[in-house]
């Protein structure tokens, strides 16, 4: 916010400049990348429309989760003799470390 201006004044000024902002009812935002994903939860999302283009502003608490390869899940499940769901959970706890996941499941 700009000091000395109330939110109504700022909204009016933005409207005069052709800028429109809207809150999005979101609880979580997931950004998928090669090998992992960023999860922002709880998330506050604002859409800003300016000159015919939309920009998304996201704020909240972020954490990085490793993406799990199904081949890795199958390998861990076979080596540890457990169902795929259990292998997936162990891999997630081990941050994708196959050996660590197998060792934990065999304990």
Descriptive notes:
- The protein has 107 residues and is of the alpha+beta class.
- It has 2 domains: 15-66, Ubiquitin Ligase Nedd4, Chain: W (Single Sheet), CATH 2.20.70; 70-106.
- It has 4 helices and 4 strands.
- Strands 1, 2, 3 and 4 form a 4-stranded antiparallel beta sheet that branches.
- A hairpin with a 2-residue loop joins strand 3 and strand 4.
- Helix 2 packs parallel to helix 4.
- It starts with 6 loop residues before the first helix and ends with a helix.
Gross morphology is rod-shaped
Mean pLDDT, to the nearest integer, reads: 89
Query: What share of the residues lie within helices?
Result: 25-40%
Order of helices and strands: HEEEEHHH
Number of helices: 4
CATH class of the largest domain: Mainly Beta
User: Helix/strand-derived class?
Assistant: alpha+beta
Largest sheet: 4 strands, antiparallel
Short description:
This protein has 107 residues and is of the alpha+beta class. It has helices at residues 7-16, 70-80, 84-93, 98-106; strands spanning 19-24, 29-32, 36-50, 53-66. Strands 1, 2, 3 and 4 form a four-stranded antiparallel beta sheet that branches.
Question: Which helices and strands occur, and which strands form pairs?
Answer:
Elements: H1 7-16, E1 19-24, E2 29-32, E3 36-50, E4 53-66, H2 70-80, H3 84-93, H4 98-106
Antiparallel strand pairs: 1-3, 2-3, 3-4
Search tags:
single chain; 107 residues; Ubiquitin Ligase Nedd4, Chain: W; rod-shaped
């Amino acid at each position: 916010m700009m000091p000395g201006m109330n939110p109504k004044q700022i909204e009016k000024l933005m409207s005069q400049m052709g800028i429109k902002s809207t809150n999005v009812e979101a609880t979580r935002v997931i950004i998928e990348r090669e090998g992992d994903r960023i999860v922002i939860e709880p998330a506050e999302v604002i859409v800003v429309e300016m000159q015919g283009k939309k920009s998304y502003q996201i704020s909240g608490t972020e954490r990085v989760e490793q993406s799990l390869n199904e081949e890795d899940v199958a390998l861990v499940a076979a080596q540890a003799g457990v169902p795929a769901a259990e292998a997936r959970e162990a891999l997630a706890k081990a941050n994708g470390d196959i050996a660590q996941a197998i060792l934990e499941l065999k304990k």
